[in-house]
Design goal:
The protein has about 240 residues and is an all-alpha fold. The protein has helices at about 10-20, 20-35, 55-60, 65-75, 85-95, 100-115, 130-140, 170-185, 190-205, 215-220, 230-235.
Length: about 240
């Protein structure tokens, strides 16, 4: 994968290049550029269900921790020496630090979003904060402080377009991790197979946009429905 070389960049620029957020937005851009759909309303990212709209972007983030990819771009700005294995190990360890806590946090937000938008929730008889804490009883190790007002700044579910759809971030992680696992299973060192898989991913997940249901698009690439096994493994929560 021809990522820009960082050997001549100053440390600050190199840091920005190796930031996984750059890979994330590259995934969104690629879905637009690689679309094979002529109808604008379902081409690129348009028309893709919230469940899968973050799939290509989070898929690309996996490459930010791939050894060969990092060595191709993360180099010392003076000597050109590629990033060493020890630093890569530290990057991966930092990514997985408290991964279980982070996953529980996202599950609380996702299920809380669904609960608040459910027809059974009545704000006249129950506080939104109490509703979220009911979810927290199932998803949090420690209860929130009584004065916690996180909901007041949770813009995603009211002003960000994710109303009753915030779960898509976590579900997209399942899809993206399982998709990347196909490359791992093929062997990340096996260039010819990786190229073939990359073209298949480009033709399906990246190329079909909203022209088919996201579940069908995933099956066209992976040959089966997604599982959470790869996500748990990537987070260091499963062998």
């Amino acid at each position: 994968m021809p990522w820009p070389q960082a050997s001549g960049l100053r440390p600050q620029a190199r840091t920005q290049l190796t930031d996984s957020a750059a890979f994330d937005h590259t995934g969104h851009a690629l879905q637009h550029m690689l679309t094979q759909v002529d109808e604008g309303h379902v081409s690129g990212i348009r028309g893709v269900e919230w469940d899968a709209v973050e799939q290509p972007s989070q898929f690309m983030e996996n490459w930010a921790y791939d050894l060969r990819t990092l060595r191709g771009m993360a180099k010392h700005w003076k000597t050109g020496e590629p990033i060493d294995d020890g630093t890569v190990d530290k990057l991966r360890a930092a990514k997985n630090y408290r991964a279980a806590s982070q996953m529980l946090r996202q599950l609380k937000f996702s299920l809380g979003d669904l609960a608040l938008h459910d027809a059974s929730f009545d704000p006249h008889t129950e506080s939104p904060f109490a509703c979220l804490e009911k979810v927290g009883e199932r998803t949090s190790v420690l209860p929130a402080l009584p004065e916690d007002r996180f909901l007041c700044s949770f813009g995603h579910i009211f002003a960000g377009g994710y109303a009753a759809g915030y779960f898509s971030y976590k579900w997209a992680e399942v899809l993206s991790a399982d998709g990347f696992a196909a490359f791992e299973e093929a062997g990340l060192e096996n260039d010819s197979v990786i190229v073939e898989l990359g073209r298949k991913y480009a033709a399906t997940v990246m190329g079909l946009g909203g022209s088919l249901p996201a579940a069908d698009v995933f099956k066209l690439f992976r040959g089966r429905a997604p599982t959470a096994d790869a996500l748990l493994r990537h987070c260091g929560l499963a062998s």
